[in-house]
């Protein structure tokens, strides 16, 4: 029996949608039939993306570090498309800095957006799904291979992403009987706006040269797993973490 990743009838809220992976996720979910609420702080970029995608997309300005913004974002998504049954908690910052020099404020911001924001986004999504009687809920939280690999200069980021993986497993257990599948995806290094400048430097090029395939991943490398985890085909998949890194951790 074949499986379909057709998302027609689903309504998804995606955070961090104004650039990079979040933009990609919005495009591929809409192309697969879902309505997508595109959440981020940069309203101008969201509006441009929503216009480009068309009728299946709506721009939702929100800051995941603030619970009030998250609640307002879900309210706006429901006003546009009805109940949200699919959530991708993707918003994040890189929080780069050596442990001895990174500021307290930078640590707090990284943890607030990457970890607290992901938990609050998933929680609000689950609360709405339960309230609306959604029985095939899907929540995907974006982590990173830095959750498992020592990453000098990324201590706050790595800690936040390790927290996302464990939060995903815990939330999956809490909400299993509500029919909500919660999974995490841990990508390897993908060239996006957040890291583009680094990989053009000599140290960045040396880092790429150390990877088994000596290359960065393309954004399309996550398409299949994202569509799968958001679809009905993922009914029996919850509490799992999927590492997609092109062999970078080998």
Characterization of this structure:
The protein has one domain (11-244): Rossmann fold. Helix content is 43%, strand content 15%. It has eight helices and seven strands, in the order E-H-E-H-E-H-E-H-E-H-E-H-H-H-E. Strands 3-2-1-4-5-6-7 form a seven-stranded parallel sheet, with helices on both faces. Strand 1, helix 1 and strand 2 (35-40) form a beta-alpha-beta unit. Helix 3 runs parallel beside helix 4 and helix 4 runs parallel beside helix 5. The longest helix is centred in the middle third of the chain and has 28 residues, at 104-131.
In short:
Helix content is 43%, strand content 15%.
Sheet/helix structural class? alpha/beta
Radius of gyration: 17 Å
Instruction: Tell how many strands the DSSP assignment holds.
Output: 7
Contiguous low-pLDDT stretches (5 residues minimum) are none
Overall pLDDT metric? 95
* Rough outline: globular
CATH superfamily descriptor: NAD(P)-binding Rossmann-like Domain
Which CATH top level class fits?
Alpha Beta
Helical residue percent?
40-55%
Question: Topology of this protein?
Answer:
Blueprint (H helix, E strand, L loop, with lengths): L10 E4 L5 H12 L3 E6 L2 H11 L3 E5 L5 H15 L4 E4 L14 H28 L5 E6 L12 H21 L4 E8 L8 H4 L2 H9 L12 H7 L11 E4 L6
Parallel strand pairs: 1-2, 1-4, 2-3, 4-5, 5-6, 6-7
Helix pairs in contact: 3-4, 4-5
Organism: Erythrobacter dokdonensis DSW-74
Protein name: Short-chain dehydrogenase/reductase SDR
Pfam families: adh_short
């Amino acid at each position: 029996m074949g499986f379909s990743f057709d998302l027609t009838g689903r309504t998804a809220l995606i955070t961090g949608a104004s650039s990079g992976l979040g933009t990609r996720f919005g495009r591929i979910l809409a192309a697969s039939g879902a309505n997508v609420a595109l959440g981020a702080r940069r309203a101008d970029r969201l509006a441009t993306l929503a216009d480009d995608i068309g009728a299946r997309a709506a721009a939702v300005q929100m800051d995941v570090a603030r619970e009030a913004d998250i609640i307002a974002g879900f309210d706006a998504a429901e006003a546009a498309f009805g109940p949200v049954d699919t959530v991708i908690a993707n918003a994040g910052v890189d929080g780069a800095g050596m442990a001895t020099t990174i500021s307290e404020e930078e640590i707090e911001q990284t943890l607030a957006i990457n970890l607290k924001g992901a938990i609050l986004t998933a929680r609000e999504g689950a609360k709405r799904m339960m309230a609306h009687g959604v029985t095939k809920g899907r929540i995907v939280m974006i982590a990173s291979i830095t959750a498992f690999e020592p990453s000098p200069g990324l201590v706050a980021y790595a800690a936040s992403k390790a927290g996302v993986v464990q939060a995903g497993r815990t939330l999956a257990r809490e909400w299993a009987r509500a029919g909500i599948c919660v999974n995490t995806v841990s990508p390897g290094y993908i060239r996006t706006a957040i890291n583009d400048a680094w990989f053009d430097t000599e140290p960045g090029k040396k880092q790429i040269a150390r990877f088994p395939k000596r290359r960065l991943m393309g954004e399309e490398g996550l398409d299949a797993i994202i569509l799968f985890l958001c679809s009905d085909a993922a009914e029996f998949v919850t509490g799992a973490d999927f590492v997609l890194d092109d062999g970078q951790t080998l």
